[in-house]
Automatic annotation (TrEMBL):
GO terms for biological process: proteolysis. Pfam families: Pro_Al_protease (PF02983), Trypsin (PF00089). SUPFAM superfamilies: Trypsin-like serine proteases. It comes from the Bacteria. GO terms for cellular component: extracellular region. Residues 45-90 form the Peptidase S1A alpha-lytic prodomain domain. This is Streptogrisin. GO terms for molecular function: serine-type endopeptidase activity. The keyword Hydrolase applies. Residues 138-291 form the Peptidase S1 domain. It comes from Lentzea guizhouensis. Residues 1-35 form the signal peptide.
């Protein structure tokens, strides 16, 4: 892709930065029975009910598998009759389902800007990979492909990578790109800034409560915790399922950036969320294990 000769630019792209601040969701919490907190919901039944009755833009839900409780989140656009319907739905589902408000609006974290570029859009590189035919490539968010099927390393720059396949909306938010130059040096590292790097050692499943970090081209290195699994988010652009919910903040341009642990576990790819890194918010990630399996690729 012709970028291996420019170490600074390459490692900056490989870094794809985002989030360190864990911020609580703001809002009133509703349960159907405050006196029965020891009871749990059937998560499969609960999520099916939510899909049928609460699939409106601005809503999301995730499961804590350690308790089988379901957390439903609504952004600031869910008001009036839609909010009343959501409250009524949650209250009728049992004490294991909880409803909270998130600050801001659920949106995809892509914008015009720095890191990897397609047209007027900017996203962040996630993890470098090797494809099943041995080509160097990388994973990023699937919704980033809306900006174009080729990415460059600077606004209006020469194309450096081309999309092979992508998923969005649907079961995940991920895309596989291959570098146009097969000789591209694409190490399995995340550049966390100030000359520091984390060597990526393996792909790992997310676990609720685990401390995680994220890199992105807008907000740099951020950290927080995993708060839910198998999350569904109803973006304005469509429903995305199978996501990881976290307390890590993110902003526009951070999309596609890596979610990982300090020990080198690769965990996810930044999708979207609400809030920002000043006020905090909720951010969702596409599991890297699912992305690798779907694209028949492996981490570098």
């Amino acid at each position: 892709m012709g970028m291996h000769h420019n170490d600074h630019r390459r490692t900056k792209a490989i870094a794809a930065a985002v989030g360190t601040l864990a911020v609580a969701i703001t809002a009133v919490t509703f349960t159907s029975s405050q006196a029965a907190d020891d009871q749990v919901a059937d998560p499969a039944k609960a999520t099916a009910t939510l899909r049928d009755k609460a699939s409106t833009p601005g809503t999301a839900w995730a499961v804590d598998p350690t308790t089988n409780r379901v957390l439903v989140t609504a952004d600031s656009t869910v008001t009036g009759a839609r909010w009343d319907n959501l409250v009524s739905t949650v209250e009728g589902m049992g004490p294991g389902v909880r409803l909270e408000r998130a600050p801001g609006v659920f949106r995809l974290f892509a914008e015009g800007g720095d890191a990897i570029f397609a047209g007027g859009s900017r996203c962040s590189l996630g993890f470098n990979v090797t494809t099943d035919d041995g080509r160097p490539g990388f994973l990023t968010a699937g919704h980033c492909v809306a900006g174009g099927r080729q990415f460059s390393l600077s606004p209006g720059g020469r194309p450096a990578a081309t999309v092979v396949e992508s998923t969005f909306p649907g079961n995940g938010d991920f895309a596989l790109f291959t570098y146009d130059n097969r000789a591209t040096d694409a190490p399995g590292e995340v550049d966390t800034g100030n000359g520091q790097r984390v060597r990526i050692r393996r792909a790992a499943q997310a676990q609720v409560g685990r401390q995680v970090q994220r890199m992105g081209s807008t907000t740099g290195l951020r950290s927080g915790r995993v708060t839910g699994l198998n999350a569904t988010v109803n973006y304005p652009e469509g429903r995305v399922t199978g996501l990881i919910q976290t307390s890590v903040c993110a902003e526009g341009g951070d999309s596609g950036g890596p979610l990982f642990a300090r020990n080198g576990d690769a965990i996810g790819l930044t999708s979207g969320g609400s809030g920002d890194c000043r006020s905090g918010g909720v951010t969702f990630f596409s599991p890297v294990t699912a992305a690798l399996a779907a694209t028949n690729s492996r981490l570098q």
